[in-house]
Amino acid sequence: MATSLPSHPIGVFDSGVGGLTVVRALMDRLPFENIVYFGDTARVPYGVKSTSTIEHFTLQIVDFLQRQNVKMLIIACNTMAAVAAEKVREISPLPVLDVIESGALCAVAESKTGGIGVIGTPTTINSNAYARAIHQMDPDCRVYSQACPLFVPLVEEGWLDHPVTRLTAQEYLKPVFVEQIDTLVLGCTHYPLLKPMLSTMTGNLKLVDSAIAIADQTAELLQQQGLANTQRGMPDYRYFVTDVPLNFRNVGERFLGRNLGAIEQVSLDRL
């Protein structure tokens, strides 16, 4: 691989559209960085697939992004991070960050009492990846996890502050609120869109948004490694997907909070 240069883009990838919340946080935190996003929309959802298949798909995407001369990799998908982050770090010469490690690090730093709640998809929660990451950083933390399977379809429908979404959130959060927690990790890249609604329900709890956490860590890492882009022109954003499903642009722009621009489709045989 060619040597990474500060002007090279950051590579961000996800199984679908959710990782665009990470791209949004990166754009806000690092407005001069070039970004390449890859969403494997033809093969989503990953959560129902075997570990070996998820790992195989992830490494295909890593290879594709490395061919785009990215200077670092961000795994913006909790399922991929839970299953394949270790393998990606093994095989890639690039710096690698992932949403689980970033979210866990931020939660441990923010919590004053050591009581941390985690909400996520059933796959992420069942993998126990957040609890493991948090306990590696601080074995004394108490972690309470809750799967919220309906949040993803509600977010994609645009029901961000709908009465149905509020009722659903109340049901999901009841068992978490019973525990003595002071910090709640939004353990899915769809969930930052629910943050305004959730913050009205969670009182003084600190909400940890993995997208913001990973953007902060990216800024730090690029400075440390001398890879921060020094050019102050308009950044270049590229979006690759393996399929352009119906309504993809509308959903994607809701996640990104701005116009998506050109979307480039990559056939699976190019991976």
| Widest sheet: strand ordering | 4-3-1-2-9-10
CATH class of the largest domain: Alpha Beta
Beta-strand fraction estimate: 15-25%
Given as residue ranges, the uncertain stretches (5+ residues, pLDDT < 50) are: none
CATH level-3 fold name of the largest domain: Rossmann fold
Number of strands: 10
Report Rg. 18 Å
Which structural class do the helices and strands define?
alpha/beta
Task: Describe the main β-sheet briefly.
Answer: 6 strands, parallel
The structural domain count equals: 2
Q: What is the subunit arrangement here? A: single chain
Family: Belongs to the aspartate/glutamate racemases family.
Catalytic activity: L-glutamate = D-glutamate
Enzyme class: isomerase
Protein name: Glutamate racemase
Write the layout of secondary structure elements.
Elements (H helix, E strand, L loop, with lengths): L9 E5 L5 H10 L5 E5 L11 H17 L4 E4 L2 H14 L4 E3 H12 L4 E6 L1 H6 L1 H9 L4 E6 L3 H6 L6 H16 L4 E4 L8 H5 L6 E4 H15 L12 E5 L6 H9 L6 E3 L6
Parallel strand pairs: 1-2, 1-3, 2-9, 3-4, 5-6, 5-7, 7-8, 9-10
Helix pairs in contact: 1-10, 2-3, 4-6, 4-10
